[in-house]
Amino acid sequence: MKQLAPGESRVLYLDLSTGEEVVEEYSSEFTRKYVGGYGLAAKLLWDKQKPNVDALGPDNMLGMFCGTCSGSKALVASRYSVVAKSPLTGGWGDSSSGGYFGPAIRANGFDGLFFKGVSDKPVYVLVDAGKVEIKDASDLWGKDTYETEDALKAVHGDKSQVSCIGQSSEKGSLISGISTDKGRFAARSGLGAVMGAKKLKAVVLVNGSYEVPVAHPEKLMEVRKFNMPKDPDFTRYGTAKEPEGYTESGEAPAKNWGASGPSVFKTAEKITGEEIIKYQKKKYTCAQCPIVCGGLMEVEDGPFATDGVTHKPQYETLGALGIMCLIDDPAAMIKFNEVCNRTGLDTISAGGAVAFAIECMENGIITKEDVDLDLTWGNGEAAIELSRMIGDREGFGDVLADGVKIAAEKIGKGSEKYAIHIGGQEVAMHDPKNTNGLTLTYLLDPTPGRHSAGGELLTPPDFEVGSVDKGVYAGRAENHQKLVNIYNVSNAYGNCMLAYFFVKSAQSFHQFIAATTGWDFDLDEAMDAGERIQLFRHAFSLREGINPLEWKKDLSPRIFGQEPLTEGPNKGITIDIDLMLNEYLEFADWDKTTTIPSKRKFESMGMEEVAAYFHAD
User: Fold this and answer.
1) How crowded is residue 236: how many other Cβ atoms within 10 Å of its Cβ?
2) Alpha helices (H) in 163-216, listed in sequence order
3) What is the dihedral of CA 546, 477, 96, 489, to 10 degrees?
4) Chain segment 446-496, per-residue pLDDT in tens
5) Rounded (10°) CA dihedral 116, 117, 119, 122
6) Rounded Cα–Cα distance for residues 318 and 480 (Å)
7) In whole angstroms, what is the distance from residue 331 CA to residue 245 CA?
């Protein structure tokens, strides 16, 4: 495969129905507008996929894209993004994962892989030194992600990189994701179901020896050395250090968002820090990462014994099962993580589904006739068994396997009161009543309810934003847009959220990109590119008929305090949602009813074709 110049990109398009393979190359000038990664993927998906396709049908394109700096020495450029129309929300879907798969895409000479069509039998795609082959995976269908990865590495070698699905995705669970390294997960947006619908069991990358083009390697190493993160707590614990502090502050929702604080969950310290890593066998790190936040764990005996070594649960998992369900056994946290990783479930959604079921049983909406488990707050064994049932679509688990919105529609009986979601997506373990700016992230990003979509929660070091006090809802629009834009740039280069926090300066994001590509890429251009990425993601959802303001119609009043809590650190707080939304829509130049950006806005970002679609004369 020929060498590309720095800044150029190459994408594979593979039709699983016909086997047709097309490779397209994009100029540095073209790529620069979208940075790379999911920014480039958003532009290409807009261009190449017609509107209103069936998310689980042959015309939905599933993309796997590495970041602009993947495979280089840029700090933590390990992540790859998966994109497609989301079967969970009906709009734009993306999710990302660390590990080693992203750099392996680049090592095979590609920046992205797009799959369309539906195979007539289970298959996996082998990319071997840039050569692509569709291979039979009938013997892998039905296996969990650990078994699948082991089987493929037995054939293609331990150094092969595998991205695969488990049985939950095969069975169409809309809360399923895609696994690499037996626990690095592109979990959200239901993209595992898209992969399962295509009968695509796995993508395997081997023998990647393509030399990553870097324009200024010495400059890249200079930026790397200056920004090398050092945080001993995150190195030791990862985000497993957070549950106790987040419980105390009110950042962590408890009891299915019906409560918060240490008066409700009194034992958060039992699933925090040292209590988790006492089960750790060895450390784990992703490609080019000096933080080393991961760990490989094993619970050797007892009711939560693992089936060998599994990945360390991080905060979102600990919050979703532990704080949300009032379970304080660290071994249960590790087992829950293993069950979800093996079957392929998003731990945030799975924990939300378990909490929803507990509250439904507590209120007599479901009974032991529906699910023969003692679903009560704090019962770890019952919660983990239910999560296994969800992954296998077994019994009542089948009702929950598409998320709480669809589950409530099936159950009825007022259960929708306990279905905590935005646009069909279960909400991350960060309460906007504590971090107010998350209101805009949760409600306006095309991937709703996500903490990992930019905004106030994700403020990098040395990045200038205004100061707004907690409980003040005006004056957040400009901050929000700037923080979304810079996060999009970081994400598109392949960066990880922890490196995003622990580099010395947010200037490093555009500096790494400039050193890798050779672009004269400053912060102003980076911010424009970040907004352009956001506009393409948003426009994709708009074209699918998704207006995020419509999500307010079935919004749980618990999330933003329209049903205020009566105790704890978030007691009595009600967020002025309308004030925040209206202020942002005006600032961003989006219509306050449709959320369609103005023709002027699209054209100012060089998106004339999008402007013409929404503003035809």
Assistant:
1) 17
2) 167-170, 191-197
3) 120
4) 999 999 999 999 999 999 999 999 999 999 999 999 999 999 999 999 999
5) 40
6) 27
7) 20
Which tokens is 26 given?
A: 């994009």
What is the CATH architecture of 9-206? 4-Layer Sandwich (3.60)
C-alpha 297/C-alpha 238 separation (Å) is: 13
CATH of 442-614, one of 2.50.20.20, 1.10.599.10, 3.40.1260.10, 3.40.640.10: 1.10.599.10
3-state secondary structure of 492: helix
Task: Name the helix (H) or strand (E) containing 165.
Answer: none
Which one-letter amino acid corresponds to residue 482? K
**DSSP one-letter string for 498-540:** HHHHHSS-THHHHHHHHHHH-----HHHHHHHHHHHHHHHHHH
Inform me whether the pLDDT recorded for 230 exceeds 90. Answer: no
pLDDT digits (tens, 9 = 90+) for 35-71: 999 999 999 999 999 999 999 999 999 999 999 999 9
DSSP states of 372-418: -S---TT-HHHHHHHHHHHHHT-TTHHHHTT-HHHHHHHH-TTGGGG
Beta bridge partners of 127: 132, 205
3-state helix, strand, coil in the chain (%, to 5): 40, 15, 45
d(CA 390, CA 403): 10
Distance CA 262, CA 570 (A): 12
Q: Given CA atoms 65, 457, 448, 234 in this order, what sign does their dihedral have? A: positive
Give buried/exposed letters for 386-418 (b at 16+ CB in 10 A, else e). Answer: bbbbbbbbeebbbbbbbbbbbbbeebeeebbbb
Written as one letter, the residue type at 161 is Q
Q: Looking at the domain that runs over 229-426, which CATH code has it been given? A: 1.10.569.10
Q: Give the dihedral sign, CA 143/149/152/155.
A: negative
Q: Is 525:510 a contact under the CB 8 Å cutoff? A: yes
| Beta bridge partners of residue 297, listed in sequence order | 280, 310
Type of residue found at 391: G
Residue 1 has pLDDT above 90, yes or no: no
Q: Where are the domains of the chain?
A: 9-206, 229-426, 442-614
